[in-house]
């Protein structure tokens, strides 16, 4: 075999992780000038107070390395935010600022999971979870969420835990499904984690995006999570600043020290002028947060109506940026093929839910669509999806 034919020299544990489906679908959106409802990033800027605070920080010279653990102004703002919205008493010294929530997740897993340790997640899962577990040499165990109601079985939950379980990773509100875990569900998860002495890592980046009166419960507030919960969030989703990469994790002092040890050798520090800007955002009034929730719920309704009118069945969307649509009523059996053809033949981009699971057959016809776009873009996408009503879907059987 020639050198040109050799596989890339990637460590074996990461060979199942290639180019993400998001990159592929974004390229197809550009190629066919399609409405990109695949990748979850907003197409509008965040609140002006936050943007202006970043500009001011740059002009004031906050352009060099910030402290490795994060600027005090942001660590204090995170602690204030947790008290204000969740009733949590957080010491700013136990807040670690990270380069986005993704780094917080990876660093937490790398710090606390030994090779062979098991990590429980819910399936579907955000795609970085499985990759981070593999980086640590951990073993991934999954609890399936059932479509269309997004419930999970307590029996499946208990079966996923065992003597080697080191961590359970919860995402609520949940990407990609839009599920908001109920208090009783989280209490059960925390109870099982305590029984097994497992860490609980709660990815709560969509904490301010819940709809129809659904309550976001911060996992760290639950009695069985005391002393073992790590709470992760970021400014990306709340303030429409996904490119700034400002996240954080807080929890027990000894765990935060362990995570900081890993972080210092990954990024050391980052996002200097954006840290005080996100701090300003966290201190915005309730009118901002109420308006954010109401505005995003209205966008959800536009997209859900369009998908339903196009003949798809939509799972409940209780939070986040995303809805899951079942294309089976259109005759689709392979959502991957459907999504690859959708940009060219209909002019819309979605992401197959099989990108977020191990058991692909169970979700073979499901597609995730994002609604964090301008209303005119959503209505354009809705009009294009209407073409599915007038004509057969793109190669519904998933063949040639």
Amino- and carboxy-terminal Cα gap: 32 Å
In which order are the strands of the major sheet placed? 2-8-7-6-5-3-4
CATH architecture field of the largest domain = 3-Layer(aba) Sandwich
Main sheet characteristics: 7 strands, mixed
Which percent range fits the helix content? Answer: 25-40%
Per DSSP, what share of the residues sits in E-state strands of 2 or more residues?
5-15%
Question: What is the CATH H-level superfamily of the largest domain?
Answer: Type I PLP-dependent aspartate aminotransferase-like (Major domain)
Q: Helix count? A: 13
How many domain regions?
2
Specify the structural class. alpha/beta
Shape type: globular
Q: What would you note in describing this structure?
A:
The chain is of the alpha/beta class. The chain has helices at 21-31, 48-59, 72-86, 100-112, 127-135, 154-160, 183-195, 253-263, 274-282, 286-309, 335-345, 375-385, 387-390, and strands spanning 35-36, 95-98, 118-123, 139-144, 165-171, 199-203, 229-234, 247-250, 313-314, 322-326, 348-349, 351-352, 366-370. α7 (183-195) links the parallel β5 and β6. α1 (21-31) runs parallel beside α11 and α3 packs parallel to α9. It contains 13 helices and 13 strands. The chain has 2 domains: 3-46 and 287-390, Aspartate Aminotransferase, domain 1, CATH 3.90.1150.10; 48-282, 3-Layer(aba) Sandwich (Aspartate Aminotransferase, domain 2). The longest helix is centred in the last third of the chain and has 24 residues, at 286-309. The two termini are 32 Å apart.
């Amino acid at each position: 075999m020639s050198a040109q034919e050799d596989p890339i020299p990637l460590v074996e544990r990461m060979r199942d992780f290639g180019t993400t489906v998001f990159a592929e679908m974004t390229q197809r959106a550009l190629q066919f000038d399609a409405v990109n409802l695949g990748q979850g990033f907003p197409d509008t800027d965040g609140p002006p107070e936050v943007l202006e605070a970043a500009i001011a920080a740059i002009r004031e010279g906050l352009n060099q390395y910030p402290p490795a653990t994060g600027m005090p102004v942001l660590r204090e703002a995170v602690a204030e935010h947790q008290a204000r919205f969740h009733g949590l008493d957080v010491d700013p010294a136990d807040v670690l600022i990270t380069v986005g929530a993704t780094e917080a997740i990876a660093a937490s897993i790398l710090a606390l999971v030994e090779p062979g340790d098991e990590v429980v997640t819910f399936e579907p899962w955000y795609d970085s979870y499985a990759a981070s577990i593999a980086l640590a040499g951990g073993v991934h165990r999954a609890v399936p969420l059932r479509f269309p109601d997004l419930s999970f079985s307590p029996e499946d939950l208990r079966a996923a835990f065992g003597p080697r379980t080191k961590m359970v990773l919860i995402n609520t509100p949940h990407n990609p499904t839009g599920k908001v875990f109920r208090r009783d569900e989280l209490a059960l998860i925390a109870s099982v984690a305590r029984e097994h002495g497992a860490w609980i890592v709660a990815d709560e980046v969509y904490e301010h995006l819940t709809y129809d009166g659904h309550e976001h419960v911060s996992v760290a507030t639950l009695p069985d999570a005391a002393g073992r919960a790590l709470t992760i969030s970021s400014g990306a989703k709340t303030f429409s600043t996904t490119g700034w990469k400002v996240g954080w994790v807080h929890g027990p002092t000894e765990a935060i020290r362990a995570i900081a040890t890993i972080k210092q050798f990954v990024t050391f520090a980052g996002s200097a002028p954006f840290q005080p800007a996100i701090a300003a955002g966290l201190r915005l009034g309730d009118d901002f947060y109420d308006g954010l929730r109401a505005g995003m719920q209205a966008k959800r309704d536009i997209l859900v109506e369009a998908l339903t009118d196009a003949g798809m069945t939509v799972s409940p969307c209780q939070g986040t940026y995303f809805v899951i649509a079942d294309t089976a009523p259109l005759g689709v059996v392979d959502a991957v093929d459907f999504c690859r053809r959708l940009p060219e033949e209909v002019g819309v981009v979605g992401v197959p839910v099989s990108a977020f699971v191990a058991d692909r057959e169970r979700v073979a016809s499901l597609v995730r669509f994002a609604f964090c776009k301008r209303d005119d873009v959503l209505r354009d996408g809705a009009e294009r999806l209407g073409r599915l009503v007038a004509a057969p879907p793109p190669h519904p059987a998933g063949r040639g």
